[in-house]
Design goal:
8-stranded mixed β-sheet, alpha/beta, Rossmann fold, single chain, 8 strands
């Protein structure tokens, strides 16, 4: 059983029915996969929402929901919704009628609207104590706080942004181009996986995920790789095990992420940031190559209750992932504890 099969096996599912999307298309018989960990109190004041990141599932985020950690399930009810397109929630790879290239375009607004329905309709939760996430998970948490400010008390965005920056967009265009260059992709209508394109996608991505210092200082050895080539080969194999249309579905949501791209804010990012009432902490990594700390500082200047705490790590973007880097994980756990302990 691979990681995707395991995630599907222990997921819970919220049935959305025919779900109208921001584009005007309809995702038929939409299913939002999730896991809920801990016990919801009668007053429903201990709820936390923790969306998944690019290629991640609820299983990955659940590593932070442990006894003795800041997200101790004895104290907090943690809802971990899976991104549309991740192969667990409705995705090009698993949809019965809109599979593959027929899968409609989705945005993070679509994801967050579905997640709000899950909270409200399944659990009766109208306000969360904390919305948090890493990378694309942080972008979704940001969307919750901007689109539903009265429903989010605190926000923690680790290596994430309110709007995908131009340079981040360019990075994503590059890895996408590596996949599309494989003729076997066939505009998404492949019958066999486009393995060469998937391998190229993974290898290009690996160069962005870590920093220059990570490779210069041979820190890949701490992850069990004897050389940079061995790391690249592992990333290639990992992406060959994924569905190409799933990767592109999530990538499109990431490239176009923008908390103001909706009728509520009509493209005014400053107004969207200013509407966030949550106590906010932004935690970029100093050597992140695509969610750069400068972007976090620019956003914080337009937020009313925000602090920027930079994680110092040569692991780059990867340092912020759930339990990826011990030093960074300690800082993130401390930030969660401080936020949840603050009024």
């Amino acid at each position: 059983m691979n990681a995707g099969d395991a995630a599907r096996a222990d997921a819970q599912y919220f049935e959305l029915g025919d779900f109208e999307l921001q584009s005007g298309e309809v995702l038929q018989n939409a299913r939002l996969a999730y896991r809920a960990l801990g016990q919801l109190r009668a007053d429903r004041q201990n709820a936390v929402i923790f969306p998944t990141y690019y290629t991640g599932s609820h299983r990955d985020n659940a590593t932070l929901v442990q006894s003795g950690r800041a997200l101790d399930p004895a104290d907090w009810f943690v809802v971990i919704p899976n991104l549309f397109g991740n192969g667990v929630s409705s995705s090009p790879s698993n949809h019965p009628t809109q599979a593959g290239a027929a899968f409609p375009r989705l945005t993070l607004l679509d994801n967050v609207r579905a997640q709000q329905r899950l909270l409200s309709e399944q659990f009766g939760i109208e306000r969360v104590a904390l919305a948090l996430g890493w990378s694309m998970g942080a972008q979704q948490a940001y969307h919750h706080a901007a689109l539903f400010p009265e429903r989010v008390a605190r926000l923690l965005a680790v290596c994430g942004s309110a709007r995908t920056s131009p340079h981040n967009w360019v990075f994503l265009a590059g890895v996408k181009a590596a996949l599309l260059a494989d003729p076997a992709f066939a505009e998404g209508r492949y019958h066999e996986p486009p393995l060469r394109g998937l391998a190229a996608f993974g290898r290009v991505y690996a160069g962005w995920a870590y920093s220059q210092a990570f490779f210069r200082n041979h820190e890949y050895r701490a992850l069990g790789y004897a050389s940079p080539q061995a790391l690249l080969d592992a990333w290639a194999r990992d992406h060959q095990a994924r569905d190409a249309n799933d990767l592109l579905c999530m990538l499109d949501s990431w490239q176009n992420a923008d908390i103001s791209d909706n009728p509520q804010y009509q493209g005014d990012l400053g107004r969207a940031l200013g509407a966030i009432s949550a106590r906010t902490r932004l935690m970029p990594v100093n050597q992140d190559l695509y969610f750069h700390p400068d972007d976090s500082r620019l956003e914080a200047a337009q937020l009313t209750r925000a602090e920027v705490h930079v994680i110092e790590s040569s692991w780059g973007h990867i340092a912020g992932g759930p339990d990826r880097n011990p030093q960074a994980s300690t800082q993130i756990d401390g930030a969660i504890r401080e936020l949840l302990g603050a009024p």
